[in-house]
Automatic annotation (TrEMBL):
BP terms from Gene Ontology: cellular response to lipid
Transmembrane segments: 32-55, 67-93, 105-126, 207-228, 249-270, 276-299
MF-aspect GO terms: G protein-coupled receptor activity; olfactory receptor activity
Statement: the UniProt record of this protein carries the keyword Metal-binding: no
Protein name per Swiss-Prot or TrEMBL: Olfactory receptor family 56 subfamily B member 1
G-protein coupled receptors family 1 profile domain mapped to chain residues: 47-297
Principal subcellular localization: membrane
Entry GO CC: plasma membrane
PROSITE patterns: G_PROTEIN_RECEP_F1_2
Subcellular compartments: Membrane
Alphabetized UniProt keyword annotations: G-protein coupled receptor, Membrane, Olfaction, Receptor, Sensory transduction, Transducer, Transmembrane, Transmembrane helix
């Protein structure tokens, strides 16, 4: 083992560090994936910064729908930044070693951001439901105060809710193996190396997933069922088509988000040997949606497209004005 071993009497951990091997089965050429992953990460950060700048600077976008999109952009950047710098360091500098506290901190951050993203999806679904099913009451229901309360609730809920996951992982006894067939510290991937009973971790993760994201998904499905029922009652085909169009991109992201989580969870809980597809899905799940936010949400929304043009056209005009020589 590349990690040093400690005397079991001096510490409750015998393994002092973990080694992230990367993608299973392709260790010899996985560094070639660093370029597309780096481009995805840069596009994720750049696209979401553009969204935030546009929403902040265009008064016409100071609306609940765009506030939720701005919060989603912040969460997505946090999630991508939690994993991508370490993955790129593994590929470029062979920095595979990660300390135990750093690993458990990454487990906490991943679960926290994923839970917050699920919560924001629920808020966006509720926003769409009120806008389509109760348009006259929308201004009195979805207020700035409600958005602030919802955002604070999501931060507190997920910040506190996921604490048992890394705490239980840290209480396991890691006495021999320390090599993880993954690019990131996943909870079930790390605890699979422990020498003692790890069922408490699996049960904890399953319960938290069902209570947290399971309840979010149930309410999202309920919201879109009510939206679909309301849309089908519209006499205008054009109005129905417009209403469904505003929800379609959101639904695509939701299906991808929850489907990947189910695949990863089932693979780990079945205790199958780590394979490339689930590990690759785990990484792409945290980087592809943030990189597509600009395209899927923004470019399909007429008001946001107009906001981009207005904000960046004004910036370009100011730069050209400064470059012109004074008469």
């Amino acid at each position: 083992m590349s990690a040093s071993l400690k005397d079991s009497n001096s510490s409750k951990f015998q393994v002092s560090e973990f080694v992230l091997l990367g993608f299973p089965g392709i260790h010899s050429w996985q560094h070639w994936l660093s370029l597309p992953l780096a481009l995805l990460y840069l596009s994720a950060i750049g696209a979401n910064i553009i969204i935030l700048i546009t929403i902040c600077q265009d008064p016409g976008l100071q609306q609940p729908m765009y506030y939720f999109l701005g919060i989603l952009s912040v969460v997505d950047m946090g999630l991508a930044t939690t994993i991508m710098p370490k993955i790129l360091a593994i590929f470029w500098f062979d920095a595979k070693v990660i300390s135990l506290p750093e690993c458990f901190a990454q487990i906490y951050a991943i679960h926290c951001f994923v839970g917050m993203e699920s919560g924001i999806f629920l808020c966006m679904a509720f926003n769409r439901y009120v806008a389509i099913c109760h348009p006259l009451r929308y201004p009195s229901i979805v207020t700035n105060a409600l958005i602030l309360k919802a955002a604070l609730f999501m931060v507190l809920r997920n910040g506190l809710f996921v604490i048992p996951v890394p705490v239980l992982a840290a209480q396991r006894n890691y006495c021999s193996e320390n090599e993880i067939e993954h690019c990131v510290c996943s909870n079930l991937g790390v605890t699979s190396l422990s020498c003692d009973d790890k069922r408490s971790n699996s049960i904890c993760q399953l319960v938290l997933a069902w209570v947290g994201m399971g309840s979010d998904l149930s309410l999202i499905i309920l919201s879109y069922t009510l939206i679909l029922r309301s849309v089908l009652r519209l006499n205008s085909v054009e109005a129905a088509s417009k209403a469904l169009s505003t929800c379609s991109s959101h639904l695509i992201f939701i299906l991808f988000f929850y489907a990947v989580i189910v695949v990863i969870s089932v693979t780990h809980l079945a205790e199958t040997k780590a394979t490339l597809i689930p590990v690759l899905l785990n990484v792409l799940h945290n980087i592809i949606p943030p990189s597509l936010n600009l395209m899927v949400y923004a470019l399909r929304t007429k008001e946001l497209r107009a906001g981009f043009q207005k904000v960046f056209h004004l910036r370009l005009q100011k730069k050209l004005r400064h470059k012109r020589p004074s008469p």
